[in-house]
Amino acid sequence: MPTYLTELQCCECGHTAPADSRANLCSECGASYLVQYDLAAAAKTLSKSDWAARPPRLWRYRELLPIVDPANELDLGEGGTPTTPLPTLAKSLGVEELWLKDEGLNPTGTFKDRGAATGAARAAELGETDLAMPTAGNAGSAWAAYCARAGLMLHVAMPADTPKVNMAECLAYGAQLYLVNGLISDAGALIGAACAAHGWYDVSTLKEPYRVEGKKTMGIEIAEQFDYQLPDVILYPTGGGVGLIGLWKAFNELEALGWIGSERPRLVSVQAEGCAPVVRAFEAGADSCEFFDNAATGAAGLRVPRPFADRLVMRILKETEGTAVAVSEQQIAAAVAELAACEGHYICPEGAAAVAALPLLRESGWLRSSDRVVILNTGTALKYVDAIDLTGVPVLDPGSALAPQA
Ligand SMILES: Cc1ncc(COP(=O)(O)O)c(C=O)c1O
Ligand SMILES: [Zn+2]
Asked: How many Cα atoms within 13 Å fall on the side-chain side of residue 24?
């Protein structure tokens, strides 16, 4: 068997559960389970070159992924995204090395594909037929695609003001789509009740253990791409925090394999001012988040008023000596424009939030000029075409003169 999967373990109380049947939350305390592997055994047989010899995709890390039979892996070409330098921005910020890991190149245009690949594959392997989830948009698109490939039915609920492209994708992939007049938290309550009523598998963020495993591969890839010399800082636009948890878990597992030491990148949670529960909690020195009332931001993926695994997210920020920063809608829009015009990367507003946090962290002195910094761009701007403003773009009749614009 390719995987070293052993069991599930609660991230709060340590309670363990078998990994061979449906699992949602810890039966003792209600927190999230995380997937465990026999890393001591893996350390004896697995080598970096085993991974390096395979195609540069998510499933190259199958020993540390939760699929027992490789025939159940769902491969739409996810993972293996490039990490490329941003020289112009690095210069203007005065930092030595600045890199963009571009998750916009995944099959449905965001990093959500990674979690959907492992989550849907494992659900199918365990014999599930109907999955259900609330989404801010992109996770719904990703899970709809991977469920289509796996032959699973996905019931997905999203706020009615979610970008239309997400709705289009869910419909195209054959998911059952529900639009909710409310936030993702309202959609989550509806899905929870529907799962109880109909027996569907609730695959909400951190309410099933296998999505984090796919997200974890971003951390493994960063390690590989930097030849196992981890960067100093990674900025991550945070909604539910799955990516942050995935990065942290990846580095812990690589350390257990003996492939990296105990040093960690300082992880930065970036949020929008209009929905910043993690930033508020971090600034207050709290170990959990309060519900963020009237959450509002155009960065749809960041509109999560209270992350489900808030305690773990807060622990990770402290443990890695990281921080949390909120940016305004104007700063996000300016960062989208700047990165496109100066570096040729047209990135999603969530990723742009991380870019916008950089000058704030430089001004405060938190970010040092000697730091090697990675920005996790979680998706492509092309998922957000609804929001494009064409004011001022000339519309010409055929045959009229085309004058240069000021
Ligand atoms: C593009 C994008 N970036 C970031 C996030 C936040 O991800 P997480 O909930 O894992 O923190 C989302 C979530 O919907 C997203 O779609
Ligand atoms: Zn527990």
From this structure: 16
